[in-house]
Amino acid sequence: MKKEFTIRDVKLEDGPQIIQNYYGYFEELKRDPGFGLLLPEKKPSMAGEVRWFADAYARFLEGKSVFLVAESDGKAVGVCDVIRKTSGRYQNHVGVVGLAVAKEYRGFGIGEALMREMIKKSRKKFDILTLGVLINNKGAFALYKKLGFELYGTLPDCIKRKGKYFGEHEMYMHLKRRR
Ligand SMILES: CC(C)(COP(=O)(O)OP(=O)(O)OC[C@H]1O[C@@H](n2cnc3c(N)ncnc32)[C@H](O)[C@@H]1OP(=O)(O)O)[C@@H](O)C(=O)NCCC(=O)NCCS
Question: Which CATH superfamily is domain 6-127 in?
Fold first, then answer.
């Protein structure tokens, strides 16, 4: 079965659904310590989430980030964002990518469509994209490889969940050296 969806910029009214999706990922992590998303140990409060979304949306409105939503069945079912690396160490040209699609909407091409649009939009804002992916997150790793991200390192066992270790691959795409 196919799912109809569109990829578009985030809107203010997406906030509650994006937060609800995010909370859903904590439930997935509870069931599966190998779940692919890097989440904080403590589920953030609703107040914290609202603050996060307000800041993220403001950054987007100011043109400082890329913040895309996949809409399906009239709601936000996936997000892809790129935020500037804020090290204050001459790394303003580096964008850090985040990607997540709600469970029931995976496997329909939504993640790939979000990433492709994100790369297009990022060309105007960043020179290099970077992201981290858990070694066991084979689906996400395959997607990033397919799109041309390159592996530049692996930190074994850097995440420990419920006593189990998970390593992380670091990947990048150089937007100035790749058309
Ligand atoms: C990773 C994720 C965003 C992929 O989104 P998706 O909409 O399910 O992926 P798509 O349907 O667009 O798949 C695109 C490509 O990704 C790869 N892929 C996706 N899921 C896969 C899986 N389960 N196994 C193998 N490859 C997979 C394939 O290369 C696929 O291309 P193909 O269909 O031509 O083989 C989604 O699974 C997700 O949100 N997972 C939980 C959160 C997460 O892990 N985020 C990434 C953190 S780094």
Answer: Gcn5-related N-acetyltransferase (GNAT) (3.40.630.30)
Bridge-based pairing of strands 94-101 and 128-134 is: parallel
Q: How confident is the model at residue 136 (pLDDT cuts 50, 70, 90)?
A: very high
Binding-site residues, ligand 1, Cβ < 6 A: 36-37, 99-101, 106-112, 133, 137-140, 142-143, 146
Span 1-51, pLDDT tens digits: 899 999 999 999 999 999 999 999 999 999 999 999 999 999 999 999 999
Domain boundaries, the chain: 6-127
Q: What is the pLDDT of residues 76-109, one digit of tens each?
A: 999 999 999 977 789 999 999 999 999 999 999 9
Q: Phi first, then psi: what are they for 171, rounded to 5°?
A: -130, 155
Mean pLDDT of the chain: 96
Ligand 1 midpoint to CA 140 (Å): 5
CA of 90 to the centre of ligand 1 (A): 32
Which residues are 7's β-sheet partners? 70
Q: What does the alpha-carbon distance between residue 48 and residue 97 come to, in Å, rounded to a whole number? A: 21
